[in-house]
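Q: Hi! First time asking for a complex rather than a single chain. Here are the components, and I think there are two in total. Is that enough to go on?
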Amino acid sequence: MSPDILDETTEIWFGPQHVSAHGWAAKLTLVGDFVVECDPNAGYFHRSAEKCLEFRNFRQGALIMERLCMLEAFLAEYPYVQAVEKIAGLEVPERAKVMRTIMMEASRIHSLQFWWGQFSAELGLFAMLLWPWVDREFFLDAFEELSGSRHAVSYSTPGGVKYDFNDKVLEKLDIAIARFEDRMPVMRDMLMGSPTFRARTEGIGQYTLKQGLKFGLSGPPIKACGLPMDLRKDAPDPNLAYDMIDWEVPVTESEEHPGESDAYDRMVQRFREMETSVEIIRKLLPLVPEGPIVDPKARGKSNRLPEGEAYGRVEGTRGISTLWLKTTEKAQTPYRAKIRGPCFNSYYSLKHLVPGAKFADFIVVFGSLDPYPGWWDR
Amino acid sequence: MGFFRNLGDIFQILRHVFRQVMSRPFTYFYPFEDREYPERTRGRHIHVREKCTACMQCVRACPNVAISIDKSDKHYEKDAALFFDYTRCIFCGMCTQACRFDALFHTKVVDISEGEREDLLYGPDKIETLDRDPLEWRGRRFR
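A: Yes, that's all I need. Here is the structure of the assembled complex.
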C-alpha cells in the first residue's frame, strides 16, 4: 500500500442492495482495506408493527408479531400472547404448555440451521449453505403438517394453542430430529475443522463479556462469553414447560481467551444451542399429557381485556425478545404495544466491533451476531 | 496420524456425498410436478352457502379486512354472498376458525396467482366453487 492510499478515506455503502444485506445498510469508511468507521443504518425494513398492533384485537396481534421474524415464528409471536394472558388472567392447559415448548424449540433449531447455512455462504463456503437447508426442510414439513403453513404458523393463541398434535405431526417431527442428529455432528466437524473457516472466524469480532453486556446483547452472543444468561432457566415461564425437565444452559468458554468471544466461539455456541434444543424436545415429547389444547373461556376473556399492563418476554434464537402491552378498561385493542427485539443492540454494536477489521471481515462480524432486520425496524 | 485422520474425513465426506447422490432430489419440476399437501394446508377458501348464517364472524375475525359480505343477496333462508379479496388475505386461518357453522374452509389449492389484480377479487360465484380438483392440474405428477 502506498502512503497516498493511507491518507485517503473511502466511503462505501454496504447494502441495501447487497445480497447479504437483506433489508439493511451500513456506511463504511475505509482506509485501504481496513474499516475505520462503521455507521449502521436502520429503517429499510420498517413496517410500523407497533402501530399495526394498536388496530388489531388480542387474538389477531400474534399474527403481526410472527411476521417480525419469520424464521422463529413460534418464538416471535409468544411475547404478545404471554402479555395478553397475563392481563386477561388466562390459564393455559398443561397439554398446550408442553406443545408450545416443543414447537418453540423446533423453531429454534430451524432458525439456527438457516443462519448456519447463510453464515457459511457469507464466508464463501457454499456447500455448507445447502446441506443444513435440506435438513431444515424436514422441520418445515413438520410445521406445515401441524399448522398448514410453513413459516407463518400462527400457532399460539391467548389461552393455549390452535392446532393439536396428531400422529403425522409427531412422525414428521421425529424424522426431522433423527435426520438432524444423524447429520449435524458430521457437518459441524467438517465446518469447524476447515482451515478456511477457522482462519476467517478466529479472533474476528472479539468482545469481552463486560463489553457485550454494555452493548445490551443477549442470547448466544453473550452465552459465548461464558455467562449462562438464559430466560428459560433464570425466569421459567409458568405457561411453558421448561421447568418440567432437567437441562443445562449451553455455554461456551474459550480456553484461549476466557471471558471473551469471537465469531468462532459464537458458532460453537449456536451448535450447542441446537443440541440443547434437541435434548429438550426429546425429553418433552413423552411428557405431552392428554387434555384440551386451549382454555375454553379464553375466547370470551380475550375479547375485551381489563385495564392493565404486562410485559411478555421469551428467550429467542437471537436473544431476549420482549413486548410491553398496555390496555385500557374494556379495550378491544391495545392502547400501546412496545416491542424490544434482540437484534437492535447486536446491529448497532457493529459500530464498535467493526472498526479495525478488514473490509472482508465486516460480514463475518455481522453474520456471527445473527441479527434479523425485522427485529430492529419493527 | 494426520494421514489417517484426513483419510477418515474423506471417507465421511464420501459417505454423505453418495447418500445424497442416491437419494431423490429435494426440488420439484414445479408446474408439472408437485407434492402432496397436508390436511391442514391453508390454501384458498371455499364457502358453503347452504350452511352460512351470515353471522359476520369471519368478517370480524379477519385481521386484514379481506372479507366483505352482502346480506341482501340470499339464495337460502339465512345465507349471504361472500366477497374475498385475495390481494389482502394472509391465509392466517382466523376466519375458518371463527366459523361455527362449518360454512368456510381452506382448500389445498395454493397456486392462485393471476395475471390481473382484479382476478384475485373472488366474488360469490368464484368462492363457492372449486373450478378444478386441487390435486389434478396441468397433468401434474405427484410424488
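A: The longest strand of chain A covers residues 34-41. Let me know if you'd like any chain examined more closely.
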